[in-house]
Amino acid sequence: MSGTCEGAAATPALQDYTLRLADSALILGHRLSEWIGHAPLLEEELALGNLALDLIGEARSLYAYAAEIEGKGRSEDDLAYRRDAGQYRNLLLVEQPNGDFARTTARQLLYSAFAHPFWRALAGSRDEMLAAIAAKAEKEAAYHLRHAGEWLIRLGDGTEESHRRAQAALDELWPYTGEVFERDAVENRLIADGIAPDPAALRPEWQRSVAAVIAEARLKQPTSGWMQSGGRSGRHSEHLGHLLASLQFLQRAYPGASW
Amino acid sequence: MSETPMPLWEVFIRSRSGLAHRHVGSVHAADAAMALQAARDVYTRRGEGLSIWVVPSDAITASDPAQKDMMFEPTASKIYRHPTFYKVPDDVGNM
Q: How much is the pTM?
């Protein structure tokens, strides 16, 4: 077994943490895949598909690792297809519906502005497997951030309508950004062990890159008021159940189906 | 809602083999930066390239297909412009 899981006590925390990262990647990847066949232009149809595949690829590596840590014979597919909403540990931000293109773009910016420095920091993890997965994901996230940023700038600084929609998207999603930087017992444990980066330490960089895009897009940064929370403990918005119904349908209807 | 057609850009990609940029197709995009992104997303999904150029399609001045006889036909008879036209004495060896 690769990685450096030290002692039995660290194992559940590492598995839980890996699952959180996997869930966020899978759910956002699935959301983006919902655009296939509906994107506003052909070029963006492929771009959104590319982002989705990056994220689903990250999720696969992480699920496989989480299953390996758990050591109970479950596969990456079992973890993705056979857990209910209450067992999912993704950020609430990523399960929010696509809405219009501005909303999808804003969601991607807010996530990727965190994901990019996060993967870079995790690439220095003492856990070799997480470090390797993070090193690959960092390059992907760098492009996601650029792609979403360039689009949001043009939407915000575009027509009256695109500006209005971009502002509405930011305002709507902002309350989901607080959760991204939360820490709980699992993370504290892994931060102390040098396995996980401290998300709070990544906040200034997130703030800088988001603020730069918002300013160039001539949008207003929403005021940080009350923040939504709960994804990490399985308390999700009503949207996740609907998403999973579509994501998991095949394996639920025909367990073990393969092709 | 006002919609203006997005400009067209020609995409050129240099492959890993280090050859010159080669024309691969076109994309629609509002400006150069977006055209570069679109080109990356549409034409380099299978590791096709290491460098991309995008050029506004309307910046290209093209020859008129209707004039191809005038433009290209006269060279057909000038076979002496090809190196293979000339006999190289054996003593010269490989050039």
A: 0.90
